[in-house]
Amino acid sequence: MWVRGFIKVMDMGMEKPIQSKYDMINYLRKEALPSPLCPGCGGGTVLNAFANAVDQLGIDPKDLVLVSGIGCSAWIASPHFLADTLHTTHGRAIAYATGVKVGLPDKKVVVISGDGDLAGIGGNHLLHAARRNIDITVILVNNFIYGMTGGQVAPTTPFGAFTTTTPYRNVEHPLQISEVIAAAGASYVARWTTAHVFQLIDSIKKAMNTKGFALVEVISQCPVQFGRRNRMKTPGEMIKWFLKNSVPVSKAKKMNPEELEGKFIIGEFIKRERAELVEELNKLIEEVSGGET
Amino acid sequence: MIIKGNEEEQIRLLRKHYPKGNYFMQGDEAIAFGALFAGCRFYAGYPITPASEIAETMARELPKVKGYYIQMEDEIGSIAAVVGASWTGLKSMTATSGPGFSLMQENLGLGIMTETPLVLVDVQRSGPSTGQATKGAQGDFFQARWGTHGDHPIIAISPLSVEDSFWETIRAFNLSEKLRIPVVLLADGVIGHTREQIRIPDPEEVEILYRKLPKNEEEARFPFGDVHGDLIPPMPLFGKGYFTHVTGSTHKESGMRDVYTPEVHDRLVRRLHRKIEEHKDEILKWEEHYTDDAEILVVSWGVSSRPSLGAVLKARKEGIKAGLFVPKTVHPFPERRMRELGKRVNTILVPEMNLGQVILEVQRHVNDEVFVKGVNKIGGVPLTVEEVFREIKAASSAERSRHRSAD
Question: Does A224 map to a domain?
Fold first, then answer.
């Protein structure tokens, strides 16, 4: 069904073929291309990793519902991934996805959005979805910045970093999203950077196969809004920064907070089985209504 | 598909758990039962006085009829989950009061822009801000109309009693499903917490509607297109393999975002308005009492229409030609009827539990010669028959003296 490298464009009732050498092109919505992301953005890597994960898992895109919020990272999968896509308000993607998952328990519901969207304005929904352990996969693209609005400080911006609203330096501390969500009750939490593509694909696959709430945090580069204001003008410099400062979870456990300042802890934070919300709701319905209809 | 799952089973379940007959319950509970009979099978909410009894009733009753109750972390998340669930085909509802209604406004806007059927119940309480949390009021008339930003249509319905709450909730669902638009049920804390007798019907006596679904793949390609010429697009639900794209951004008929072409925005937003405008006859609903020969017209809504009716009856006993007009669909406002009535009377009194909101709608539709006066009460205590009657009587003697001086 998926012909590699050859696609048909459906627009205004006209069909025209597009030639592409990109393996995952058939997972993309043709009328939404080209991508609106800046050259060098990490979002493309995330989309590529997600498409590869879906491909390797053999998931039919008809069994996928993708939900996103507002911001650059919300555009990674919506409308670009060819599946049911719900593009919502700022910060609320996980709450919308909660309703979708309850209505479609047999589908894979995936939220792909940014750090400001999911952990800033929408932080409460992220926290509570993890607590409920609802079977949603969240791919949170953390680029330390509000990119779409012009590069303002985010709740994830490193201490001391420069942004358009911290022109002298950031005097706040960043939120450690993965650590918080692992503590909040999620079934699976992993963090990688865009420099760790194969590990990222593997974690997305694990997350999607987890029965329960799964978070994959991806540290991603925004050379345009973050890098160039912090002495990293090119995407390559940012990737090198990620590689140089990444510390595996196991090693990080032996380090003290001072040593970990400015480091990116990568790897799997948690993997556990825990009662899942929608399954529990359906069990409850059977208990209350069942057997005596 | 009318209700979730097997319809025969659903009717059997409703009959079993809520056998037809007379019940004694609160307005809030009647709203919940109305929702159950309308086919609502998803509720997401957050506790707030005086609407919490709706959540409690739904939490208790929904699982019995195979429906889902979920308590969200806030009102913003509640209406978001409701929109999400609606796109999977579940009839969905949330309920709140003033402060929560304020929080819901942004996502209500997304519901309107994406033409998502849902019912949002606002059990109005005394504001502004936290105000008198446990006391009823009618201060959200304009919040229901203009609470979310931008040009948008809305339907809002206001029930008058506990039994009316049951039936108007069903009507709210039917309009929402038929026209693919969120419907606000503007209840109030007084009726919400009043206990009255109500007759629960047999489920087969209740007419319920379900949204139009695409008949084929071709129709499903235009989730926001007027494919049937009635301005109401069929709704390609998630999970059916249509690859539906839904966004709160300005979008083309296909659902794809286009925020750069002025015509696309113009076409979309004007159709949203026309959809309501051209189906107004099905949406509007009002009650009239003694309006045929009325000289003094009382225009009231929701809880205030009840002392207003008492006052009109009392005035009639004293020979005063008073009449009562009660819009039950408050948005869109029944303007044409208001204009007709406005031409026949000398005086219009508008009793409401606020400092003057519906009165502004009334003034827009009657000419300057008609004397329009508000009968306003705030503080959480409903108007009494005596208070409204006093105003009718005063208007009547003023009217007589005016006639005398004209002679």
Answer: yes
